[in-house]
Amino acid sequence: MPNFKNFAKCIADNFDMLAQQASEIYVTNVIGDELYELYLSSYPAGTNEIYKVRAENDCSSCKHFIRHYGNVVFIVDGKMVSIWNPPTIENIAHPYKDVTLALNNRVMNSEISGIFVGQEKACGYPSNMQLLDNGSVKTWNHLYGVLPQKHVVSKAKSPEAIKGERRAFYDVFKRGMEELTLDAAMTVLELIESNSIYRGEEQKPAVKEFIKYKKIYCELGEAKANWLWANSKDNFVARIRNTAIGTLLIDVSEGLDLDKAVAKFEKIMAPANYKRPQAIITQKMIDEAEKTINELGFHNSLGRRHARPEDISVEHVLFVNRDVRPRMANASLLGDLKPTASVASKEFNKVKEISIEEFITKVLPESTSVEVMVENNHSGNFMSLIAPEDKTAPSMFKWGNNFSWAYNGSLADSMREEVRSRGGNIDGPFRFTHSWNHDGQNQSLMDLHVFMPGNIHHPDNVKDHSYGSNEQRVGWNHRNHSRSGGVQDVDYTNPPGKTIPIENISFPNIKKMPEGKYICKVHNWSARNPNTSGFKAEIELNGELYQYEYPARLENHQWVTVAEVTLKDGKFTIDNKLKPTSMTSQEVWGVKTNEFTKVSMVTISPNYWGEVGVGNKHYCFILDRCINDGDPRGFFNEFLRGDLDKHKRVFEALGSKMRVANSNNQLSGLGFSSTQNNSVVVRVEGKSKRVLKVTF
User: Fold this and answer.
1) What b-and-e string marks burial along 192-228, b requiring 16 or more CB atoms within 10 Å of the CB?
2) For residue range 480-523, what is the model confidence (pLDDT) as tens digits?
3) Hey, is 690 helix, strand or coil?
4) Domain tally for the chain?
5) Is the domain of 638 the same as that of 679?
6) Which residue segment(s) compose the domain that 381 sits in?
7) pLDDT tens string 545-568
8) In this structure, is residue 404 part of a structural domain?
9) What is the DSSP string of 544-569?
10) 0.85 cut: is pTM over it?
11) N or C: which end of the chain has fewer CB within 10 A?
């Protein structure tokens, strides 16, 4: 047909021009056979007549070209361009212009599916000649193109392998753009700029470049796939997901705790010697927390001080000494607490055990004086009530008032927080923890072990390194027990300076644990110092906490059984084997141990000053002349309202920074959690004088 030669040359010239300029050629997901069918059907009526048995433009050579090269596209200035839209399209005469427009429209409405790999320079051929029956020669013109040499690959290379490798670049780039968040990248960049991560400066260019690409990607609509193909070749950003900084971006994007995410990154960068000195906090976190604080009116709630007798209302008091009564809030209401008439005291020669509930309901109402025997193992029970500096400030806590409390060593309950800070599990149904070196002089190396049901182990009087069956034990040199799921997840045995070492064994799933007896032991693997002391331990069973202290020196290789835990019918029972050993009197916060000390006030923790309690209840015995000489935290994260959880990292830092100032006017003494197995000996006076052992 006339004008076909010009049509074919326009397409060929456009193919050549685009290929010469392009660094890469792509193909779309439109099928070649579909394109050829469209090619034939796009001829206007009467313009593709039958020649002998087929339509004049139904040509096997053109069919081959369209099937193999018709879906080829290029990226020019960020936009996809097909070979069917030549700059000279206006020079294409009827009917071929209609055909070109139809093919271009179809290709441009498809997506890039991969790269084009050519192994021949010639893409079809321009023409061929046919000898007719009458002896004349007819020239047939065809669609064709020429592939520049730079796009021709060796026949020795597998086209499929080349396409597969290029597809992998695209896929990892796509995952990076879709899975790594802009917020995560901005957080990591802020950490780098504040010098908060090890060797972060080396990663700064990559992170900044990723942010640039991510912003572009977020603004794209349906053109994302084509953009990814155009930008994934020889681009290190496309592969950032598979790098060291990429692991940090992934973890932060997935919401992993920031400290843990950074620790993983720093372990990759310097696994042997780098230790994180402090928790991670970014300026963005600070700004967002400050915004929330201001919106909720909590700015004046942050300042904390020691609580005083005049801060405490009588309605929150279970007992108060007559010397303290006049100083309390609502002191006029104390008229209901009438002193008992003086009678001859009766000394009890036998200590009776009663529960804290019975003590409160039956003993305290009849008491005019209460004293407690402060023992050495109560050192961790020393606590202070904390009040807001501004009495009018709203409460930041889960309960209605703005009072809190802090235990000795700034631990809200026990060594659980230390275990958690070391990455250990504290939430499972069964936990066994122990620590030592509390006097700063212990050089021993101790280990904790849990012997499984059926394991044969040596009694405590046998000093050796025998462990019974390693396969039925969790502890040093066998830290995972696959059958029960038991794992030693903290082995912090050689901390720097005078830091207290700690170990932890946890069982995260009670359903995996075989029934029977679990024996919890501590082993002094090496007594390196003759002045070594004992240890402290905790066992937690479904939220019930048991604390132990072994103050005596352990011999080399000595075993100590702490307790035997039995699991039957899905329930735990415990047989405590360890009994505290008495020590010489010490002084804690001005209070001498192993002596009776006068109680000024008995109250419950502020989270139960109301009709509805929140969390664990604590019983507070405020002691006369007990002065916390430290700088306790004003609050703990576990106290804070739920709408502050998202800022927990900032509040953790604030709680550590905004310490309570020293004061001689304070309410400090002994605290006992309702979830901890503990006891205290009290001496009370009222109608009689007696000594009781109060259990918790």
Assistant:
1) beeebbbebeebeebbeebbebbeebeeeeeebbbbb
2) 998 899 999 888 766 555 567 889 999 999 999 999 999 999 99
3) strand
4) 4
5) yes
6) 305-394+589-695
7) 787 888 788 888 889 999 999 999
8) no
9) EEEEEEE-SPPPTT-EEEEEEEEEET
10) no
11) N
